[in-house]
Amino acid sequence: MIRKLAYAALATGLFFGAAQAQEGMIDALRQPTLDALKGKKVVFVPMSMSFDLPEGWAAIMKKEATRLGYELDIRDANWSTDTGTRALTQAITEKPDLIIVQNFDVASYARTLKKAEDAGIKVIQVNMKSSYQTDAFVGADWYGIGEYAANRMIEQCGKDSGKSGKIALIQGPATAAASVYQLNAITETLKDRSDIEIVSSQTGDWDQSKARGIAQTVIQQHPDLCGIIGFWDAMDAGTGAAIKESGKDIYLITSGGGNKTACQGVENGTFNEVVSYDVEGQGRDLNNTIKVLLQSPEPAGALKFALYTPNKIISKDTMSPTSCWDLDLLKK
The Periplasmic binding protein domain covers which part of the protein (predicted)? Predict the structure, then answer.
């Protein structure tokens, strides 16, 4: 009798267990998460929508905004700090839930970003930092990029290479985060190296023609130049063109978002190496940061964190079919 009751209890348990498995369990976190995101407003103020980085970020963010039901509003600064400041100021009066900003330099937006925070608006800075730290930074590890490039120049041009040790730097604008942090890293890495000489350090201002002119002049002044560190691949297409014109073997390292033109530049010999900070990965990190901040009950300015992009090295030795991305495919 006891055995029969035990079998009956076991059968009943299996029945109810199977029924519960068929019905499934409720994910108690899913709906509150969706509710926290739906209907929210996010404003994105890039330097300009005319080049690959913000275009790629925007394409990735738009997909997630559509999927989760929040609004992404793009306010193009169109290469003007004044226009960007007006866009940010207007956004602050509208009180969106979140602002994403790509700074021109470390100073121009600092006060405006603090005003946004004081108004209770959370702020993400993407790729180019301000001196004022907001809730989050998502972007390139500029110090790490500069440190890597300097060490590669030691390998390519230092005492063990048998070459001159002379290198040149072609920066972006002097106050841009990409310039100040990379320059610091390069200087620190090379400060005790008597075998490496920086013979020129000039600002190309993200301009391809200006970079080409600088490279042409430096190569003429230093016929034994060994290498150039450029600070952005779109600008350094001009640097690479000047090297090709000279017919000299000058090692060019640059960095960028990893668009397909970076891989093409390595393939055709314009660049020896591109340090990619991977716009696809940054887009994913941006989306995750947006979702964290929109769900967080903490007030603006309470969270201070950074998601630095892992560097991806693109060279003829490392390049694969997945090394670079295509904007047309990101938009699909």
Answer: 50-295
